[in-house]
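Per your request, structure below.
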């Protein structure tokens, strides 16, 4: 069974600067568990099939105008249809004046009532994006996440492989650190993974022989970032002379994280290899591939090997 995540209504209020009109209980005790949003127009007509009371309800000019044109008895019946289902919360947009009958109905049915000055569509988009992030499926994995030339690169490998040292060198070369040691990965959409650091270890890096350092304080605010999309995975492993490593890069390798395919490569480690330069090159090459250019394929074509086509392969970095 997949785990269900929640976010308190208090966090929603603070993140979107919402005004509280009525709360039946403390906002921190009211939990939102779905990123789906609803506009209750059709429910006000009495059609309640498929209504999800877990969704936040958004009302603008249309909904308030529709209720305003009803008779008192019709309005009372419509509000009973809707608010009697106990929706998670109701938000009035555009800073519209809230009729007293609506406030009274929310109090009667104990439904939280909030208000925003934002217009309806921009507020809907911002709220959905926020809830998608807060409620996204997530896992935490051992590794380092850095932003290199705009690409989010997740570096994995055994302890002592040189992940943190590579991250420090990348920071010195102008790139940014998102997370060291533990990377929290969230599935924002069917094709997008977002990585960030747990708040209690954010911006800290462990370097063997030196100890814990604060990258933000040593290298400045420009050296760190709170979150970043994961565009590729680089697995560091000790050189194995019996293993055949890919030398052309013709095939496209992917790993699966939370059912999302992410480009992946394996880099063998030997003394003297500059991992920071390798990560930079891998990031730029990955961007080129996304833009439709494969250097290995181009080389094969120039050599007359016209039948050679890149193949997609699945590789295992670590278990989900």
């Amino acid at each position: 069974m997949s785990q269900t995540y929640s976010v308190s209504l208090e966090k929603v209020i603070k993140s979107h600067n919402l005004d509280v009109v009525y709360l039946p209980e403390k906002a921190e005790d009211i939990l939102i568990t779905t990123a789906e949003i609803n506009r209750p127009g059709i429910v006000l007509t009495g059609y309640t099939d498929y209504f999800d009371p877990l969704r936040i309800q958004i009302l603008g000019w249309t909904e308030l105008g529709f209720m305003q044109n009803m008779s008192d008895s019709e309005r009372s019946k419509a509000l009973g249809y809707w608010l009697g289902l106990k929706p998670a919360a109701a938000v009035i947009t555009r800073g519209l004046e809230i009729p007293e009958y609506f406030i009274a109905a929310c109090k009667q049915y104990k439904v939280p009532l909030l208000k925003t000055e934002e217009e309806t569509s921009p507020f809907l988009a911002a709220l959905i994006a926020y809830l998608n992030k807060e409620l996204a499926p997530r896992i935490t994995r051992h590794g380092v996440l850095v932003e290199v030339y705009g690409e989010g690169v997740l570096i994995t490998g055994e302890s002592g492989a040189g992940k943190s040292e590579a991250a420090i060198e990348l920071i010195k070369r102008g790139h940014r650190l998102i997370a060291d040691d533990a990377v929290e990965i969230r599935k924002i959409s069917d094709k997008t993974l977002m990585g960030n650091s747990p708040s209690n270890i954010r911006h800290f890096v462990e370097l063997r022989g030196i100890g814990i350092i604060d990258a933000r304080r040593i290298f400045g605010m420009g050296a760190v970032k709170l979150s970043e999309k994961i565009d590729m995975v680089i697995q560091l492993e000790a050189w194995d002379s019996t293993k055949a490593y890919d030398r052309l890069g013709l095939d496209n390798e992917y790993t699966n994280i939370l059912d999302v395919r992410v480009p992946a490569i394996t880099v063998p480690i030997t003394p003297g290899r500059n991992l920071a330069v390798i990560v930079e090159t891998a990031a730029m090459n990955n961007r080129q591939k996304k833009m439709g250019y494969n250097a290995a394929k181009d080389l094969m074509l120039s050599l007359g090997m016209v039948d050679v086509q890149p193949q997609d392969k699945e590789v295992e970095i670590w278990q989900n």
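The first helix runs from residue 9 to 15.

Regards,
D.
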